[in-house]
Amino acid sequence: MDPLSHPYMQHALLAGTTIALLAGLVGYFMVLRGQVFSGDMLSHVAYAGSLAALAAGVDLRLGLFAATITFAVGIGLLGGRASADDVLIGNAMAWVLGLGVFFMTLYTTHRATSNSTANVNVLFGSIFGISAVDAWLAAAIAGVLIALLLAISRPLLFASLDPAVAAAAGVPVRLLGPLFLAIVGATAGEASQAVGALLLVGLIAAPAATAQCLATQPWPAMALSGALAVAAVWVGLGLAYAIPAFPPSFTIMAALAAEYALAAVARRRSPRMMVNRHAALP
Amino acid sequence: MSWNLFEDLQQMLRFHFMLNALRAGIIVAVVAGAIGYVMVLRRESFAGHTLSVIGFPGAAGATWLGLGAMWGFFGFCIAGALVIAGLPGTRRAGGSGDVGGAGEQPAGVGTVQAFALACGFLFVSRYHGFLSGLNDLLFGTITGITDAQVLVLLAAGTLTLTALLLLGRPLMFATLDPEIAAASGVPVRLINSGYLVLLGIAAAGTSQVTGSLLVFALLVAPAAAATRFTARPAAGLSLSIGIALLITLAGETAAFFTPFPIGFWVTTFGFAAFLLASAYRAATDRFGQRWPSAPALSPAGGRR
What we know:
Chain A has 282 residues and is mainly alpha-helical. Chain A is built from 13 helices and no strands. Chain A has one domain (3-275): Orthogonal Bundle (ABC transporter involved in vitamin B12 uptake, BtuC), CATH 1.10.3470.10. Chain A has helices at 7-32, 36-56, 60-78, 80-83, 86-110, 117-124, 132-161, 163-168, 173-195, 200-214, 218-242, 248-269, 272-275. Chain B has one domain (5-289): ABC transporter involved in vitamin B12 uptake, BtuC. Chain B has helices at 5-13, 16-42, 45-64, 69-86, 90-94, 104-126, 131-139, 147-176, 178-183, 188-210, 215-229, 233-257, 262-290, 294-297, 299-303. The longest helix of chain B is centred in the middle third of the chain and has 30 residues, at 147-176.
């Protein structure tokens, strides 16, 4: 039977493809700018925000996006000052996750109607359970964010590779940083709906890391990162459909990890790519 | 629950599971406080975070196979420590000051972490009826610690602390100045690997009390607070252990009397301790600079 004839599969493909493309493109800039650890932290924030919304009885996505975007813009405004202290970030990360546990308990004890799987879905995602409305909404938000990112991608690339020269050339570096992080926050919210709060780092970081192993020029690497993310989601969804024992979040992560492992091996065999990896500006 | 503190505590201690939780908490706090202090000095927080996350698929897989979560925690954490020790340049990449450094190395680590969590999720979903245990594995519980588990934790804790004491001097030397230590014949590479294994054991033990995702709080918060108070290693180490004990026991007590799990309380107390320590440090730094000049600026205020 054709897997595409199931509505749940169509919705998963629609949401999964757009979210993966967004995550791959955003992830490329995050790796380039050395902000992967912020993504790790955003996953904790996404969890706490989602459960706070559930505990308050409002739409989950409201808390999710509010928390991730606020947090990301906050980091961006703090600038380089806050990123220096890994001990501070580690402490804050642990505490934010602890807050998430607090809201989870509030949610499960004070709402008798609540379903116990909500927590698992927030943590590890449930892309097969996404409804038609949610899928279209997620795709629309992803489309807007992709358009926004592509619109600022040229100055952003310049500012990421050489902030000082970019600033001298009149690129608004101080404005681009927080704006990009706001997009990152929204992307984290989107990715969290597909693969769950705990695994969103994989969807954002892995395709970019893979692309950097394979491509030397920035624009091809960026396109490759998006394509790899989409491919991993398609492979993951197909595998999860074929083998019902595997949850889709796991198969997507496995596909991403396999891509990365293959690319790392491939690069080791051709060491010349290590040298001119960050080639030059376009 | 009455408001008589003494009676409440007595009532709490009448529960056997609570006694076990407190015993395990004391062991785990002492180990985590000591190992975590060295971790913060060595700037290996990122490795500690990875190791604690790796414990989750181990525990879930072991439960799925019917082996008991404890063996999965220890097995995966120690294996993970050996793998990290074997990676080239891990020390620099994890400890270059800014978190995880730039470029694709942290992206690789992030990929591995996400994949490890996804594997844990797979094992959990294969083991039907275990989904309620998922929260315990991730966020900790005070009700599930058995007598046998306390004994294993005690054995692992004693082993870890003994090894840390034996490594003590050369480890401090290799931590504070690796180049000179290597030049004067200290086997730095071996010591680094040995320390990572100890960190793995500590993370595995702590996971069983605070849950996989929140181990980091007990490893990093007391140590970070201690380094804000004093720069002397011996005093800092004792202080770190003391703070770890305090927040663990307070967290377990709070978890007993409230509906919120231990993970929330331990992270909250830990973060509060860290903030207090940071405020103390900021205050002493400011007044420490002002004190010599303060009497000169306002002599009347000083003599009043």
